[in-house]
Amino acid sequence: MINYKEVTPKAPQLLAYIQSYTYSIGSLNETDAKFITRALPTVMTQLYFEFEGGLSAIETNGKRVEVAKRTYISCGLSSWMDIYQIGSQQKTRAIKNFKVELYPHTLFEVFGISPIEVMNEDLSLVDIFGLSDASLLYEELEASDDGEKMIEIFEKYFINRLLKKTIKQNTLTPHLLNSSQSIKLLAEETGYSQRWIQKQCRETMGVSLKKIQNNKRFLKILDNIHRKVLSGEEKINFTQLVYEGNYYDQAHFIREFKQNTGMTPSLYLSQKYQYLVSFFW
């Protein structure tokens, strides 16, 4: 049995920096190797703690790598990747992992690290928390078998780091995270130049404003589809999704969908939801 849960931060002061926590703790009672899911691109910075290792593998661009026992940090808008369960002769295997999703500006504002400088680097917890705090944080998390307690432990160390931060939150950050306006309109609204906005966006978040907006729009579309399926809708109109997402046309929607998933909308969603719902234009 696996205890799996995704939750938002407990401490109110962390809501501006942390989007969510996800933990999986328990026993895996399967021996077969199999495909688990396709992880999609996100502009969020992800801190991943793997406390067991050897349970899964990640495949990107045809290269498969086993997920070992360690910490992983991913920042910047990467490609989609496939996650596989590794087969084993053991009937029962312990599973324990913990993921923290940080907003794209958090790495810069809280830890003083510009995402653009560490893009595609193999980062670990030590690289952002330092050796002492990273070691203590990992030890406390590893000693706990309670997901909610693990969140409390992480927040204790994060708040301590937050109290030491010297970079103030950029007044432009909320606009960069939430605005769907073009950079021209955003410049007119805020009074900053387009060039300065782009510079700030790349320095604090690691990607351009357009890429942030495109990623948020795509993930919102997927969330809307999921809500429709859960509400019992049996047919979903792709044309309506194109309209809801403010895509230029059908071709634009399909192109961005393939860019984010490696599949056409019909293929991806049919595989994900199979016989639950049908899709049409």
From TrEMBL:
Organism in which the protein naturally occurs: Leucothrix mucor
Protein name as catalogued: Helix-turn-helix domain-containing protein
Domain HTH araC/xylS-type intervals: 161-271
UniProt-listed SUPFAM superfamilies: Homeodomain-like (SSF46689)
Pfam families linked: HTH_18 (PF12833)
Keywords: Transcription, Transcription regulation
Coiled-coil positions: none
Single annotated GO MF: sequence-specific DNA binding
